[in-house]
Amino acid sequence: MAHLVRDRLPLVLADALQRSILDKGMGSGDQLPTEAELMAEYGVSRTVVREAAAILSARGLVEVRPRRGMTVREPDPAILSEQLAVLLLSSHIEPGQLYEVRAILEGAIASIAARERTEEDLAELDACLAEEEAVRDDWDRALAMDIRFHELLARSTHNPFFVLVTSPVSSLLRRLYVDQPKYLALQDVILDEHQAIVAAIRAMDSAEATNAILRHLGRVAQYIGQGESKARRASGKVKQRS
Amino acid sequence: MAHLVRDRLPLVLADALQRSILDKGMGSGDQLPTEAELMAEYGVSRTVVREAAAILSARGLVEVRPRRGMTVREPDPAILSEQLAVLLLSSHIEPGQLYEVRAILEGAIASIAARERTEEDLAELDACLAEEEAVRDDWDRALAMDIRFHELLARSTHNPFFVLVTSPVSSLLRRLYVDQPKYLALQDVILDEHQAIVAAIRAMDSAEATNAILRHLGRVAQYIGQGESKARRASGKVKQRS
DNA sequence: CCTTTTCGAATCATATGACAATATCCGGAG
DNA sequence: CTCCGGATATTGTCATATGATTCGAAAAGG
Predict the structure, then answer these.
(1) Within 2-21 of chain B, which residues have Cβ less than 7 Å from strand D?
(2) Which nucleotides of D are covered by protein (CB under 7 A)?
(3) N or C: which terminus of chain A carries fewer CB neighbours within 10 A?
(4) 3-state class (DSSP) for residue A35
């Protein structure tokens, strides 16, 4: 019985399990021992095992399902998203700063995507453009396709970092203007600019791709929620999406 | 009673508490109800309250200390760091891609820092440079100061995003060459380049600051890792628009 | 012999109670 | 008024019990 624990037992167990998972290179779907086995192996109570499982689950490393126990899972980017969102919100970041970050990220994304894109990426982007055109009058779905478009752009870089980091930044920004009615009116312009971006990427013209997306972001920022105070005031009613 | 819960109770409680915290704008140090009170308020057992606390603690939103209960705390960037590290590792990102990301981030940081830096930032950077020079022969401390230097750069942008995202990327990269003996030999060059960066930032010369840090990163990448020229090529395209 | 159904058992989800450890608070001594 | 020490409330951990859910095997039917 180790009485010298500084950290609480659940944390110790969780870290031990995490290291065990990462070191052994366990893939997603792999099973961890049952609660009873873990109790016996580490000489702790069920409560501790349970809280350790909760911690790992919160970290997105494992999924706990009744009767199946803990199964290793591919870490969920959404968790990072939430983390980043909480941190950014609590660090009093200003909309203008968020926009700056987004411009930098998307500019880099366009440049790299123009270099690294495959034919498959182009096909998906084309499909997305077509879908955007089809739903241009449906506010919710148009927004969803807009999000998807930028996600596909990030994917086209084939650099996981951009896929991971872009979505939280975008979704945070969108919270500021998601209920702006102006958004629909912009649809035509947005569509044109999206097409220009894809064209540049298809041509593998990095400079033009960057320019096109910066023009795009600049216009969106200009038309929508120009300043921070405006944006905040206009978004008085924040709708939660799940 | 509602038997239709698909999410487990601890998660439900954790989310409820999190929303409660964020909505009420509770600051760090603020106290949440005791376990007993939460049990009564939400009509759940202590087990559930406990696991919810573990989840929130894992998310970095609260700190649980014996006898003080749950206290709201300023979210810890280190948690995001760990999250991002796990995600990047498990997404099979390549070192070259990490370099590219770092070049983009640091290039943007230098540019913005040159614009936004205050006198205090400059003072801290100067102090850091002096310290770097003092410990140039001590491997561990030299590395620590190098990390601190880049952290101070990120801080000088006064944009929380860069502070949050830079550290995980850097630390991940450092894991790749942290045990390279070449690092010490580079100390003189590193110091010179750091000074050049600070000089450009002091002069509020964004372009030169970006160039200086890209030269710096390029050299480090070249000497240390199997430097991919990709990173330099792509980052050259990153430019700042006002 | 193969398919379907059903039922049992293993395992997780939650509840309850108990005890230990310890930080905080309050009252008394100086 | 300050300092010290014990009372006390609260968290940390353990043990046990019960309900719920799922997996798998046995049984039933074709």
Answers:
(1) 3
(2) 9-17, 20-23
(3) C
(4) helix
Contacts of B234 in chain A (CB under 8 A): 108, 111-112, 115, 206
Phi, psi of A64, rounded to the nearest 5 degrees: -110, 120
pTM for this entry: 0.79
Residues (pLDDT < 50) of chain A are 1-5, 226-242
Half-sphere exposure in the Cβ direction for B35 (13 Å, CA): 17
Measure the CA–CA gap between A44 and A7, rounded to whole angstroms: 14
Listed in sequence order, the residues at least 6 apart from B5 whose beta carbon sits closer than 8 Å to its beta carbon are B12
B70 touches strand D (CB under 7 A): yes
CA atoms of B18 and B24, how far apart (whole Å)? 10
| pLDDT score recorded for residue A22 | 85
Q: Quote the CA–CA distance of B100 and B78 in Å, as a whole number.
A: 22
CB atoms under 10 Å from CB of A55, counted, come to 24
**Residue pair B51/A50 in contact by the 8 Å Cβ criterion:** yes
